[in-house]
Amino acid sequence: QVQLVESGGGLVQAGGSLRLSCAASGRAFNGYVMGWFRQAPGKARGIVARINSSGGNPYYADSVKGRFTISRDNAKNTVYLQMNSLKPEDTAVYYCNAVLGASGYWGQGTQVTVSA
Fold first, then answer.
1. Nearest to 67 by CA among 14, 105, 22
2. Distance between CA atoms of residues 84 and 76, nearest Å
3. Backbone angles phi, psi at 30, to 5 degrees
4. What is the C-alpha end-to-end distance of the chain, expressed in Å?
5. Which residues in the chain come in under a pLDDT of 70?
6. Using the 8-state DSSP alphabet, how is residue 116 labeled?
7. pLDDT tens-digit map of 90-109
8. Per-residue three-class SS string for 5-73
9. Separation in Å, CA 16 to CA 7, 9, 50
10. Contact 64, 84 (CB under 8 A)
11. Residue 18's pLDDT is what?
12. Percentage of the residues of the chain whose pLDDT score is greater than 70
């Protein structure tokens, strides 16, 4: 089992940047596929980005391509989401996700608010 704790959210003006971090505790972090999801009020939770266990083959939702970058440091058991050129429509609670086989885990979420 793995526990996930997100940090780095906050309030930022449009065009600004934030870096989210997700610290994982537990075993075998470097075996997990890690992802970031987000959920805006009244909307379903959807994927933002995903990265495989070795840090390669990143996937991005079309809405964030070219603006967001996912990365991971397996030595620190941490995955990051660098968010640049933020837009008001990026406002949401951002969740970290870890998947290994049939097991999946979620963090508690961190709020990102982008003002116009």
1. 14
2. 23
3. -75, 0
4. 40
5. none
6. -
7. 999 999 999 998 999 999 99
8. EEECCEEEECCCCEEEEEEEEECCHHHCEEEEEEECCCCCCEEEEEECCCCCCCEECCCCCCCEEEEEE
9. 17, 12, 22
10. no
11. 98
12. 100
